[in-house]
Amino acid sequence: MYYRRKILLALLEEMGGNLQATDMQKLLFLFCEGQRNKSYEFVPYRFGGFSFQSYADKRTLTKYGFLNETEEWELTEKGKSYSNMLKREDYATLKQTSETYGNLRGNTLIREVYRNYPYYAINSEILEKVLTPSEIKHVEAQKPTNNSTTFFTIGYEGISQERYLNKLIFNNVKLLCDVRKNPLSMKYGFSKNQLKDSCERVGIQYIHIPVLGIASQKRKKLNTQADYERLFTEYERTTLREETKSLEWLMTLLKQYKRVAITCFEACESYCHRGRIATALQNLPEWNYPVKHL
């Protein structure tokens, strides 16, 4: 079993074995904030900080009988006694979380999190129910406000879905354009439907532009920078010359949404065709916009 799933089971048992969904998210968030290396990361969502990965793990734990199949988080007998499997520092964090927040539930718990971590409340639908007007202003101050027209590129290699989404949120990206030919990923959260759903849940539109992708068979045996250069030179000579209308469409989308990002896998744009797309856009006669690689 993945260690992070043991964290879920241990936290749930420490808190009594049964938690409402929102309470579990808030207590998990507070526990992770106490960790040196966080087991889960979070995004600002409808009721505050939310971890998509934790819900994927909930589904797996339910499938294998560690949790009951309910909207709540409810341990079965099989899911108990995992706290003694935690690392010493995580066990200490678990006890500290329980001592500090273990008696808080519902709006009282939500308010505690919102007041201390206001960024994660920026998309909340219940601010008025749990915060005072002055506290709401503090949350509003965390919202990204840069609306200057900017074109971004971003890769998801080496980061969680939540960290990826937070990069987009921090930069006030309004539209994500997936330029993979085949938008499938072994990494949780980054296949087309998962990515589209999570983006839209945090207020970012998603579209797929497969004609700007590179076929997977052409991406095999890329071992050196020279291999990448050969691939991208061919890509510029063929796809980018043939898809000028798609490039012009990207510029139209940028004018419409103002904050647009293209995405693929590689962390560094020099190892990804999205870097060449950005260069091709900058070479268009009417292009006069900054490009930022996230």
Detailed description of the structure:
The two termini are 33 Å apart. Helices cover 46% and strands 11% of the residues. The mean pLDDT is 96. The chain has 294 residues and is an alpha/beta fold. The protein folds into two domains: 3-140, no CATH class; 150-293, Protein-Tyrosine Phosphatase, Chain A (Alpha-Beta Complex), CATH 3.90.190. The protein has helices at 3-14, 21-33, 52-63, 88-101, 106-116, 127-130, 133-140, 161-170, 192-201, 225-237, 239-242, 244-257, 273-282, and strands at residues 18-19, 43-45, 48-50, 73-74, 150-155, 175-178, 205-208, 259-264, 291-293. Helix 1 packs parallel to helix 4 and helix 2 runs parallel beside helix 5.
* Helix proportion: 40-55%
Strand content: 5-15%
Low-confidence stretches: none
Apparent shape:
globular
Q: What separation lies between the terminal Cα atoms?
A: 33 Å
What's the number of structural domains?
2
CATH classification, class level of the largest domain: Alpha Beta
Query: Over all CA atoms, what is the radius of gyration?
Result: 22 Å
- In which order are the strands of the major sheet placed? 7-6-8-5-9
Q: Mean of residue pLDDT?
A: 96
DSSP, total strands: 9
What is the CATH architecture descriptor of the largest domain?
Answer: Alpha-Beta Complex
Largest sheet, strands/sense/barrel: 5 strands, parallel
- What would you call the quaternary organization? single chain
Class from secondary-structure proportions: alpha/beta
What would the CATH topology of the largest domain be?
Answer: Protein-Tyrosine Phosphatase, Chain A
How many alpha or pi helices? 13
